Amino acid sequence: MTSKGFEEMSEHNHTDQHEPPHAPHEHGQLDRGITRGFVIAIGLTAVTLVAEVLGGFWTNSLALLSDAAHVFMDLFALILSLAAIHLAKLPADNTRTYGWHRAEIFASLINGTTLLLIAVGILGEAWGRLLHPEAVKSKEMFVIACIGLVMNLVAAGRLHRHSHDDLNVRSAFLHVIGDAIASVGVILGGIIMLYTGWYVLDALISMVIVAIISWGAIRILREAGHILLEGVPPHIKLNELVDKMRAVSGVNNIHHLHVWSICSHITALSAHVDIEPDYRLQQGEIIGTLELMLDRDYHIIHTTLQGECASCPTGPVIQQLRHRPRKQSGRHNHDSGHQKH
To answer: What residue segments make up the domains of the chain, in order of their start?
Structure first.
């Protein structure tokens, strides 16, 4: 890279990092708008949850109670999304260098486990009602499900306006839309039972919703476990990423590569960058170019890149981690004590 090219790149970096004076104000308004949308969506979803739980017991509808469990899953997801926004603002310290972002993952584990237990309970009740159908207050069930649908649509409307600005908001929006679809299923079931008296349908709808809940819970547990095991984020193709890093002028090879998620919205990367001998004096420029590419193409902004990797062994990009040899001092001292006697 020529000095002129680097000056242009540095000027570009300067422009990206130093925003116009009005930008912080705009970001502040966007954050407040997103937070307000989440608060309204959480309030409406909580009202829906209470209505469907009480209505489910009142109408004796297992389908309503199953939908309430689905609503609970989405309410938890909304709360997690809002919590992630606030946790991101908490500073890192000497004991938590990553801050509190991982709290989201532990909450997801609790959520997924709880939902699986709820699903098992509902499935058992649904099986019993398949064998021995029970009467359901279909008209009241229909009304309550309609209320839930309206609440879901209003909540979705509040989130939709920011769903293109933030991945977190888009995920929450899709959760609420899923709730609305489940409510439509309960409404259709209520209409059919109202005119036919075929109460077995209540159990069948419950089983369908249980399948949706179980799939969502297993996906939550799988994703949370993958993050806790420091797995490569699913949206990153490692071979493609390595090829792009090697394609940067001055980079000879990449070693000791690690890519992991701190939470569901923050990806980190560390690597040793073997720089070609003729480019050693341009190490800072090369590292800067790599960081720009990782941010632009993969949204990786937390990077640790070590240049001049002269001591790196030639071999695979992924370097296997090994435990340090265990010290035998305790056993040696114990044996020595026996020898003295």
So the answer is: 17-228, 238-321
SS3 labels along the chain: CCHHHHHHHHHHHHHHHCCCCCHHHHHHHHHHHHHHHHHHHHHHHHHHHHHHHHHHHHHCCHHHHHHHHHHHHHHHHHHHHHHHHHHCCCCCCCCCCCCCCCHHHHHHHHHHHHHHHHHHHHHHHHHHHHHCCCCCCHHHHHHHHHHHHHHHHHHHHHHHCCCCCCHHHHHHHHHHHHHHHHHHHHHHHHHHHHHHCCCHHHHHHHHHHHHHHHHHHHHHHHHHHHHHCCCCCCCCCHHHHHHHHHCCCCEEEEEEEEEEEEECCEEEEEEEEEECHHHHHHHHHHHHHHHHHHHHHHCCCEEEEEECCCCCCCCCCCCCCCCCCCCCHHHHHHHHHHHHC
Q: Which fold has domain 238-321?
A: Alpha-Beta Plaits (3.30.70)
pLDDT tens digits for 274-312? 999 889 889 999 999 999 999 999 999 899 999 875 555
Is residue 125 pLDDT above 80, yes or no? yes
pTM: 0.72
* Model pLDDT for residues 14-40, shown as the tens digit of each residue: 334 434 444 444 445 556 777 888 899
Homologous superfamily of the 17-228 domain (CATH): Cation efflux protein transmembrane domain (1.20.1510.10)
